[in-house]
Amino acid sequence: MTLTRRAAIGAAIGSVVALPAIRPARAASNVLRVGIGTSLSRLDPLLTTIGDEYIYDNLVFNGLTRMAEDLTTQPDLAEKWEYGTDLKSWTFHLRQGVKYHDGSIMVAADVVAMFKRLMDPATTAPSRSNYDMITGVEAPDDHTVVFTLSYPYGGFADIMTDRQVKIVPRGKVDQLATKPIGTGPFKFVSYTPGDRLILAKHTEYFEPGMPKLEGVELRIIPEMSSKLAALQSGELDVVWDLPLEQVKTLAARNDLRVESVPSGSWDAAIMNNLIPPFNNPLVRAAFQLGVDKADVVELTLFGQGAPTISMIPPTHPFYAKTVKIAATDPAAAKKMLAQAGYPNGVSVPIIVPVGRPVRERLGVTLQQLAKPAGFDLQVQRVSYSSFDAEVSGKAPLYIDGYFARPTIDTSTFPFLHTTGSWNSRLWHYKNAKVDEALAAGRLAGDPAEQSKHYIAMQEALNADPAGYIAYSVNFACAYRKSVTGVKTHPMRWFDLRTTVVA
Amino acid sequence: MTAYILRRLLGVVAVVAATTVLIFGIVHILPGNVAYAILGEFATPSAVAALEVKLGLHDPLWLQYWHWLSGLLHGDLGQSLTMDRPAGPVIAEAVGRSAILAGFAFALVAVGGIGLGVHAATHAGRPADHVLGLAQLIFIGVPDFFWAILVILVFASMLGWLPATGYSPISDGFGAWVSHLVLPVLVLAVGLIAHVSRLTRAAMLEALRSRYVLMARAKGLSERRVLWRHAAPNAMLPAITILAIDFGLLIGGVVVIETVFAIPGLGRLLVFAIEHHDLPLLQAGMLVLTTIYALANLAADLAYAALNPRIRYTASA
After folding, report:
1. CATH number at residue A160
2. Would A398 be classed as within a structural domain?
């Protein structure tokens, strides 16, 4: 008995000691392993809705156009395009001989079929309303696609860069949910929900010499500390979407490269313009006057972001640098509240979404910073899954935020125009000058003229705020030093065509 | 004994049938809406309405329940709404991974817990007992996510002996499979070993003081025989109850460990389903989990009967 027990203990210890020897060798070389946060739900690009899925969209598929890291629109499956003088007719000329992952050739009919599917209400494509200006799409030949629009739209080539409008073979739509096929630099190999998505090099990719990687693995690791440990031990090469509080600490390490870039994603305190107290423009203006946005960025984002007027980030050429923003003055804000009929200040709950840590922090920050200005805010926490159904567009004051959209028009019009689809789900804002500038902006084809209108919009919004648009959030990733040829994309996806793992 | 087993099996079927109603009812009073969860930043009112119709959310509740139940009886666990694929295979894969994790952890807990408990009882008041008692308190008191992060830091980040996270299927190599399991299994097992061994120690001490043990000793039986033939079977009953509960817990209730170690098991799948308000996936997952719990309890009851003739005879009488 004693002998066997000793033997068993010895064997147990021996096996633990021997474990380093059976450690898995590093996965096949030149495969990039990216740590992401949550399971991908949809593999059909037209139905994707979250950042983790957009990474996949942009690796496996191509759109007609592509958005570079500097936010310019570049050719992708379309080599060139032109538009009629009325901006209502757009013609895209496709590249020839582009091969899908199954070896078949991409043709204009695929593009037409994809947009027909998008516009069909039965598809319930989430981004359908972004393309509601399309009235017709036709393919005069195999390499030409012509769109007709119901109203002039200057940014039409820009919205073709968006995440969902990827070209797929028209006969293989049924298998998109399980065995997706695209034209992108990487082809689908397998997907285990909750674990990993495996992609391999598309050897017949249309851009010669690309991609340089043999494959990509998206590893789903929800816990950030596990993800960072995996990055440190070399099991991961990239960690996507760092928590902003980690950026400075990780940037100090010499085995990693940390990039934090400004993005068009924003958070705001949404104020309901229809019900008291925020139906009074003076109350909204008092809030803006009383709470310093630079302090909010420091406290909520650990400095990883920038104060902004509207959804247009300060790094964008259309940002209104000329608008004079009044210096923060809580005493003046209090006076303004009294003027608005609230001599004793305003007391109102502020609802924050549970499970969105940055937005929760923003709520608590505002509760503290708005106190001296006469706002007594009570933080209430509501689960994010019931947020949309119960809070959005209904509560007087709550925290919400949105990811960057591909164009300035899609970033602003739906949110701020009286008829905008999002306006009715947020603040119910109504301002004639803002409406006019937004409408003029989408009719202008020339960037200089667009800029003029969007600056006018920001001026009007600054004078009569819809709510408290706090900041543009930075987006940050960490890379092992062995990874080269990839830039952090402000739209939160990756372009890995020229990436190499040493 | 056969009648006893049959009756218990019928009981399992009844419990599972009753829980289908409960599960269906409970998940439908959860606040929130899957259409909003699926559409996220695109949840405009018209998009939500269209998707609700497509997903059949406008059917009356009894009809939805009937569709679900008749699907179940045909072996169809339903369609995951967010993933747009059948729930059955998704759950089966998750349960498979959970079962491997749970199987190893359970074996460690059963052997380690009972073994250490008996050891502590037979060495009551001696240094080994004190050391074990202290260790039990520490492992019961400090939550498992602490140990999880600690072992990842030590064995993955600092020493680099074991992978930090993830699950490696056995088809990718036996070594990788084992090395990915070591840390999560250890972390899962230590807390439960502490529980089970504490319980076993107390029950064993009581048994050793009992008159039948005195009787056995008086008969002149060897100490080993007294210990393992007479005292231990009785002392194991409470431990078996706990082990049955632990098994269900290990399969579906170790969300934190599955999250920290990024193991795509049943617990994380259920949390995903709740977060995304994916009711068919949640219902199916909970049903599978209920069945596993019920079967684990059945196994415990049978083990009781095997160890204690009194239960066996009263039950079939």
Report:
1. 3.90.76.10
2. yes
Q: Which of residues 46-65 of A touch B (CB under 8 A)?
A: 47, 49-50
Q: Which residues of B touch A390 (CB under 8 A)?
A: 31
CB–CB of B84 and A388 under 8 A?
A: no
Rounded to 5°, angle at Cα A159 from A158 and A162: 110
Grouping H, G, I as helix, E, B as strand and the rest as coil, residue A262 is strand
Tell me how close the Cα of A292 comes to any Cα of chain B, in angstroms.
Answer: 28
CATH assignment of the domain containing A423: 3.10.105.10
> Do A163 and A199 sit in the same domain of this protein?
no
Pick the more confident residue, A369 or A410. Answer: A369
Contacts of B42 in chain A (CB under 8 A): 49, 126-127, 129
Show the domain range for A157: 62-171
A138 is a domain residue: yes
Least confident of A129-138, A267-276, B76-85: B76-85
Are A295 and A418 found together in one domain? yes
User: A1 touching B, CB under 8 A?
Assistant: yes
Across the interface, whether the CB atoms of B268 and A194 are under 8 A apart is answered yes
Domain count, chain A: 3
A128/A143 same-domain check: yes
For residues A217 and A292, membership in a common domain is answered with: no
Q: Which residue is it, tokens 């490696």?
A: B168
- 8 Å CB contact of A222 and B268: yes
Picking from A377, A373, A364, the residue whose alpha carbon sits closest to that of residue A290 is A373
Out of B40, B175, B261, closest to residue A50 by CB = B40
Q: Closest by alpha carbon to A350, among A367, A365, A373, A372?
A: A367
Kindly state whether residues A318 and A421 are assigned to the same domain: yes
C-alpha span between B185 and B194 (Å, rounded): 14
**Out of B47, B54, B163, closest to residue A24 by CB:** B163
Q: Flag whether residue A261 sits within 8 Å of chain B, measured between CB atoms.
A: no
Q: Is residue A202 part of a domain?
A: yes
Query: For a pLDDT cut of 70, what percent of chain B falls above it?
Result: 96
Identify the structural domains of chain B with CATH numbers, from first to last.
Answer: 2-87 (no CATH), 91-316 (1.10.3720.10)
Evaluate whether residue A7 is within a structural domain. no
List strands edge to edge, sheet with A78-83.
A78-83, A89-94, A144-149, A134-141
Confirm or reject contact between A233 and chain B (CB < 8 A). yes
If you average pLDDT over every residue of chain A, what do you get? 90
- The shortest CB-CB distance from B162 to any of A19, A44, A178 is to A19
Q: What are the phi and psi torsion angles at A97 (to 5°)?
A: 75, 20
Antiparallel, parallel or unpaired: β A73-75 and A65-67:
antiparallel
ipTM, two decimals:
0.74
CA distance A301 to A307: 11
A303 and A445 fall within a common domain: yes
Do the Cβ atoms of B31 and A386 come within 8 Å?
yes
